[in-house]
Write a structure and sequence with these properties.
mainly alpha, 0% strand
């Protein structure tokens, strides 16, 4: 068996050698048949398959061989060839790595190197950077393969082709290039990973700050980084050059610095951070000691120093930094600083010769500031620049730099994990010093907090003591300040500036404490010391000035000596502002006589030099105010505010929110100026700040309230003004402003009360009179809009009366007074009647002479001059007087174009109204043309007023469509959010038959203001034009429910509702409730438009339908009077016909009220206006109604012959009008029946029978005939009358009988015959046919109660309640339910009583309700 297998394997090997791969495959397969786990057979099989390109089977064969013996290399070599051919690089790499290890195991260095070399090349060609780094590490000493690879001979540089593994030999014997390549790879990978991870984490929800993300990512990556190890290997490598060593050392330092800054300073990282910080400090110290030009190391060394003064940084080190990095911004800044401070740049020169003075031609400060802009992370740069700003007294920038420096110190402490106490303390002191001197005492609270912390740590620190002393001086705590300055003097600091300044401030404190002579001696000592020094002019001037102030405080005897010292101070420094202020005070107060000119010049000079000279500023402002130079007052006030730090960022910035002003007068002045300029927001802010100093200043409160009110913030204004009045109850101005605010808030009555209370003590106060008149006018407008017409009339009369009193008091308010008077008269012209007509005529008697007796009187072709207060048409007289008043106002001129434009507009509006109301056609045309002219004049003066454009459009709506459309569009260009303008444009489009555009305009108006009723009216008109009557009615109904009523909407809604109810097929007995909305809206309309005859007519008809007959008669009488007056002026046939219809309807209502003679008179008037034989259908209907009604009146008056004659005439007139003829026949029959004779009754039956034969649908005739049959117990007549209608289908029958009269008659007929069961059956059928109809349910309940079945009656009524839709029927059902509960006797007497009482509460006029209550109570009493 073994021999057979060996033979087959030999055969397979030979076949492979001969490239007979199929033969080799078969031989290998034969061998495997006998020995299934033969390693060589699988290898040969894999080779055969590979050469035959059967790659899958080849891989299976190789894998089987490897599985059998993984430590043999033959199968691995074959499978590697397979993977190389298939480019399966991942598996190929694994195979090569396995081969390398196998060869290393057997000590075959060359084979191992060949596979490693292939593996490296593979990763270079088809791998990523980390994979390449992994295989490159195989040739390093820490590799498992290195012991074998290190046995390779050294490469022969003279014959590089002698070896196939030269690169591996070089790498093994010189690993430095490999290390460098690994460093480059890991640097790139870590940089890319850091960038990618930071970008990914930034986008997460709730991500921490970017700096923290960078720290976290850096910590995660560097803690597992290979770079520190590689850097160290390069540093200790024998072949590393000096340049490479320095570069690597720099990279290692940077890496450690990044890791240090990323490590948290808390456990468990605190120990590692401290250790790493020590390593870095040691590294940078060595680099600095060796003067190696490593910029990072030098920067870390310098910036991490904890030094008190800049000198402690070691100028030698700084000089070396400048020498090594001359182009670095910090080096340039240090060079400029050293030269500025006169410190030698060369250490040797510093020892040999003294420092030279700074070059005056070089701007060292500019250089330092310019370099500082590139050194945002340098602590040393911040310290130098802060010191520079301190020397330049630039405290604002000093604060910014110190705050930035403190932030750098905080970050440095966090990065290094150790404190920089000295550096932080010096930054704190610098910041506190700047806060003390920048706009004192604005920042003193913050400065004190810092100084207290510093002094707690270092109680004797001179700069902190000095700064705290200055704070106490500003707080006027002179004794405490003196103690601090005395402590400084006792320490005898080396800095002469500090000791001289401390002695000077100590002396100044003594001056303020009243120890004048001691202070004078101390100041002289300071002056003597300063005078011996060169320069220091500012210090000398200040000391001389303080000495002068000391003598000034000694009294008048020493004022002249003080004056000399002030002058001496100015001689030392002509820029010392306080000395000029003191001289100004001397010239204005002590010099005799005073010299105000020289004083003013001194104050001006002082204020020019230093805006903090508040005393000089105040005196200057007072002087300018006395001269009326308010612009200069504002300049002085604003500069004073700026000088005390009242603005955050310049004079145009907003005031600081937490700022407590020193000079409140400046803010008051600014507030007054801004109030005058109508910059109310700025004025409010100014007065608020002023009140921070004195919250109980009544004048500031008053002005603040005024500013609030003019800015429209009425609640705040009211609060401020009330406080002002509390502080000064005698100041009437506060009460006046409160009244004005109340007027603007719509509290007109309260405002009127406030103004009248002021006038009680100051009756001639013109502004109050004007405001009172305006309040009455506004109150009248409000009352008119809410429907209180009588009150509105009284208010308008009061407005005109008060304005006339204003004219009597002074002529200075003529324009505004006449505006109020004219507006009041204009509004009064819309009232049909005035409650106090005598007062109205008295008012007109005062106004008319004033507006007519002047030479420039206009409108003579429109107004009927002379005007007379005795005119019968009071509304027209009011309107004409208003026109004359508006015209007279124009003759008075105007202060500006806006006022003049308003005057033209008012006159145009009044003329338009006059044109609409007058019945004189010529005057109407002239008024309309003149109105258009006035509107154009108004627009010429003020083309940006949209109200003027709208008025012009309204005036030209009918006459000039092009101008009208242009006007509306121009108005919308000015204000495209005005709903009224869009509505007017929509009405224009609708008038010109473009409903689509009209609807868009109305929709836009509704969007802008959903409560604007006229827009809904317009959309209702569009719906009507489109035939959508139901939607139109809903839109009109909605318009009537809005807050601002539109009379047109009320009238249109009422008209449509009246028509809809009349045309409805529903029972008229249930229509009373439906007419109530029309009643209320017409009542409102007629109060607003009492001269509208059509509305009055319609209102009368509505009153008739709801049972208010007498009210309807009164309304129709008013309509008849108006129509009669209109006809007398115009003699219009249409008005005559309206007059006739009104009389006809009035006569019918008089018939209902039993005024038969009045009715007959009205019918006779109407008949007289109609021809005997009218040609038109309407005329015939009217004549038939008049004849028919007159017949009824005559019948009621007992004039039967005349009545019959009129009925016959009516029948003849209505021969072609079946409906009217049917009604006439019914009434004729009823009249004949009422005569009572048998002949007359038979005649009545005959008339009805003939009528029914002529008009089978005359339901009234049928019912009347049936009723006669019931009364005469003539069943045949009843059957004859009702047979036809009963034979009809149910739907048609119900349509013909909407009132269900047939059911009622049949029920009564059977009840009359005593057949209750049959009557009940009829009603039950009716309920079955219409279960939702409540009236038939009530009839059924009533009959059921008569039968004694109260439970069934309650069940019927219960079903009725669930389907209840008619309020009137609901009220009826309450009484029935109460009776049913009583009859039921179930102990529900109290419930029945409640229902009966509720029925009466809902319908107190209903007799049945009272009867039900009486019945319930009687049953309760009997039980």
């Amino acid at each position: 068996m073994a021999a057979f297998v060996k033979g087959k394997l030999k055969l397979a090997r030979e076949a492979i050698a001969k490239q007979e791969y199929a033969k080799a495959r078969d031989a290998a397969l034969n061998a495997l048949e006998y020995e299934s786990e033969n390693y060589n057979a699988y290898v040969f099989l894999g080779v055969a398959y590979l050469k035959m390109s059967d790659l899958e089977k080849s891989e299976q064969a190789y894998r089987k061989a490897i599985e059998l013996n993984p430590e043999l290399g033959l199968a691995w070599q074959g499978v590697s060839q397979l993977y190389e051919k298939t480019q399966n690089w991942a598996e190929y790499a694994k195979a090569l790595y396995k081969l390398a290890n196998l060869h290393a195991t057997v000590g075959d260095a060359v084979k191992c190197a060949e596979n490693v070399q292939k593996l490296i090349q593979l990763r270079r060609d088809a791998g990523d950077r980390l994979q390449l780094a992994e295989v490159l590490s195989l040739v390093l000493p820490e590799s498992d393969l290195y012991p074998v690879l290190s046995t390779l001979p050294t490469p022969d540089p003279t014959n590089p082709a002698s070896s196939t593994i030269g690169p591996i030999q070089e790498a093994v014997h010189n690993s430095l290039p490999v290390l460098e390549e690994l460093v480059a790879i890991y640097e790139q990978v870590e940089e890319a990973s850091t960038h990618s991870e930071v970008s990914k984490r930034r986008t997460r929800l709730g991500a921490p700050p970017l700096e923290q993300i960078r720290r976290d990512v850096t910590l995660e990556i560097l803690t597992s980084s290979q770079l520190p190890r590689l850097y160290n290997e390069i540093l200790i490598h024998p072949n590393t050059s000096d340049d490479l060593r320095r570069e690597t050392e720099s990279k290692l330092l940077q890496l450690k610095q990044q890791l240090l800054f990323a490590l948290p300073a808390v456990s468990p990282h605190a120990e590692a951070k401290a250790r790493l910080a020590g390593e870095i400090s040691e590294m940078v110290s060595g680099i600095v000691l060796l003067k190696i030009p490593n910029e990072l190391a030098w920067s870390l060394y310098i910036e991490s120093r904890d030094a008190t003064h800049i000198e402690d940084y070691d100028f030698g080190t700084l000089r070396q930094f400048i020498e090594l990095f001359p182009k670095h911004p910090l080096a340039k800044l240090l060079r400029a600083y050293l030269e500025y401070m006169a410190i030698q740049l060369d250490e040797e020169e510093e020892q040999e010769k003294p420092a030279s003075e700074p070059d005056p031609d070089v701007d060292y400060a500019e250089i330092m500031v310019e370099m500082f802009s590139n050194l945002n992370d340098s602590i040393l740069a911040h310290r130098i620049v802060a010191e520079l700003y301190e020397q330049e007294f630039d405290y604002e920038n000093m604060i910014k730099v110190s705050e930035s420096g403190l932030e750098l110190v905080r970050r440095s402490e966090q990065n290094w994990g150790r404190p920089l106490r000295l550096v932080k303390k010096m930054f704190d002191v610098t910041l506190a010093t700047a806060l003390v001197h920048l706009f004192p005492p604005k920042n003193h609270a913050r400065a004190l907090r810092i100084l207290d912390e510093v002094l707690a740590e270092d109680p004797n620190m001179i700069r902190a003591l000095m700064s705290r002393g200055f704070v106490l001086q500003y707080a006027k705590r002179w004794d405490d300040a003196a103690q601090l300055f005395a402590r400084v003097v006792k320490q005898e600091p080396e800095d002469l500036d500090k000791i001289y300044r401390a002695r000077e401030e100590l002396a100044w404190c003594n001056v303020m404490l009243g120890q004048l002579h001691t202070a004078a001696d101390e100041l002289r000592q300071v002056i003597d010391a300063l005078e011996e020094l060169e320069g220091r002019e500012e210090d000398k001037a200040r000391s001389w000035w303080r000495l002068g102030r000391c003598y000034w405080e000694m009294g008048d005897d020493h004022r002249e000596e003080a004056y000399k010292y002030f002058v001496t101070a100015l001689k030392r420094s002509s820029q010392f502002a306080p000395a000029f202020t003191s001289l100004g005070v001397y010239y204005s107060e002590f010099l005799s006589p005073p010299d105000p000119n020289r004083a003013s010049k001194c104050f001006q000079k002082a204020f020019e030099l230093d805006s903090r000279e508040a005393e000089a500023a105040r005196r200057l402002a007072e002087g300018f105010a006395e001269e009326g130079e308010w612009d200069l007052v504002e300049v002085v006030a604003r500069r004073t505010i700026e000088g005390e730090g009242g603005l955050q960022e310049g004079p145009e910035a907003k005031a600081s929110r937490r700022y407590l002003p020193i000079n409140a007068w400046a803010w008051k002045a600014v507030g007054a100026v801004e109030l005058t300029r109508r910059n109310y927001v700025a004025a409010i802010e100014a007065y608020q700040i002023a009140l921070r100093t004195d919250v109980d200043d009544p004048l500031s409160r008053l002005r603040l309230g005024e500013a609030y009110s003019k800015a429209g913030r009425f609640a705040a204004a009211f609060k401020a003004l009330e406080r002002a009045r509390e502080l000064d109850p005698n100041d009437w101005v506060a009460s006046f402003f409160i009244g004005d605010v109340q007027r603007q808030m719509g509290l007109y009555e309260e405002a009127i009360e406030a103004f009248e209370s002021i006038l009680a003590s100051r009756p001639q106060e013109l502004g109050v009179l004007h405001s009172l008149g305006q309040s009455f006018l506004d109150l009248g407008g409000f009352e008119l809009s809410t429907g209180f017409s009588a009150r509105a009339g009284t208010s308008f009369l009061s407005a005109a009366r008060v304005s006339l009193d204003l004219l009597d008091a002074s002529s200075g308010f003529r324009r505004v007074a006449w505006k109020t008077i004219a507006d009041a008269l204009y509004h009064l012209s819309g009232f049909a009647e005035i409650l106090d007509e005598d007062l109205a005529r008295e008012l007109l008697a005062r106004v008319i002479p004033l507006v007519t007796d002047h030479p420039e009187k206009g409108l003579v072709d429109i107004v009927s001059y002379p005007l007379s207060g005795d005119s019968g048409n009071l509304p027209l007289l009011f309107l004409e007087t208003a026109l004359a008043a508006y015209d007279y106002r124009l003759t008075l001129g105007a202060i500006d174009d806006t006022a003049k434009a308003t005057a033209f507009f008012d006159l145009g509006s009044a003329l338009s109204t006059f044109g609409r109301r007058t019945l004189d056609g010529a005057k109407r045309d002239r008024a309309q043309q003149h109105a258009i002219t006035q509107f154009k004049e108004a627009l010429r003066l003020e083309p940006g007023n949209d109200a003027f454009w709208v008025a012009l459009g309204n005036a030209t709506f009918l006459s000039q469509p092009g101008v009208c459309q242009h006007s509306y569009i121009r108005a919308l260009e000015v204000d495209n959010k005005n709903a009224a303008t869009w509505t007017n444009l929509g009405l224009f489009y609708l008038h010109h038959e473009d409903p689509e555009l009209a609807n868009e305009a109305f929709y836009k108006a509704q969007t802008l203001d959903p409560d604007y009723a006229l827009a809904w009216v317009g959309q209702g008109l569009v719906a009507t034009a489109n035939g959508h009557n139901k939607e139109a009615r809903a839109l009109f109904e909605h318009a009537t429910t809005l807050t601002a009523t539109v009379p047109e909407a009320d009238l249109e809604y009422a008209t449509r509702l009246f028509k809809q109810i009349n045309e409805s097929a529903k029972s008229r007995s249930r229509s009373r409730e439906a007419f109530l909305p029309a009643f209320f809206v017409l009542d409102r309309y007629c109060k607003q438009r009492p001269q509208d005859a059509s509305a009055l007519h319609l209102f009368g008809l509505v009153c008739e339908r709801i049972g208010h007959v007498n009210v309807g008669i009164d309304l129709l009488g008013r309509a008849i009077a108006l129509l009669e007056a209109a006809y007398e002026e115009t003699e219009d046939a249409a008005i005559e016909r309206q007059f006739t219809i009104a009389h006809t309807n009035a006569a019918r209502l008089r018939l209902s009220a039993a005024d038969f003679e009045g009715a007959l008179e009205s019918y006779q008037v109407a008949t007289g206006l109609l021809p005997e034989q009218p040609e038109d259908a309407e005329g015939r209907v009217l004549l038939a109604q008049c004849q028919f009604g007159a017949g009824v009146a005559n019948f009621k008056l007992g004039q039967l012959a005349e009545a019959l004659g009129l009925f016959e005439a009516a029948m003849a007139t209505a021969a072609d009008q079946p409906v009217i003829r049917g009604h006439v026949v019914v009434l004729l029959a009823q009249t004949l029946w009422a005569i009572g004779t048998d002949e007359a009754k038979e005649s009545a039956k005959t008339q009805l029978l003939q009528s029914i034969e002529y008009d089978p649908e005359n339901l009234a005739g049928i019912n009347t005939l049936a009723g006669m049959g019931i009364l005469t117990e003539d069943d045949g007549l009843v059957d004859a009358a009702l047979s036809e209608i009963l034979s009809l289908p149910l739907n048609e029958r119900l349509q013909r009988d909407p009132e269900r009269d047939v059911t009622y008659l049949l029920t009564q007929h059977h009840l009359g015959q005593g057949d209750t069961a049959q009557a009940l059956s009829i009603v039950q059928k009716a309920v079955f046919a219409e279960p939702a109809r409540t009236d038939v349910r009530h009839s059924l309940a009533t009959l059921t109660l008569r039968s004694g079945e109260s439970a069934a009656a309650l069940a019927v009524l219960g079903g009725s309640a669930q389907t209840q839709s008619d309020f009137a029927q609901l009220r009826t059902s309450l009484a029935l339910r109460a009776i049913a509960l009583c009859v039921e006797e179930t102990g529900q007497g109290q419930e029945a009583l409640k229902l009966a009482q509720k029925a009466i509460a809902l319908s107190p006029w209903d007799r049945e309700g009272w009867e039900a209550l009486a019945y319930v109570r009687s049953r309760s009493a009997s039980s």
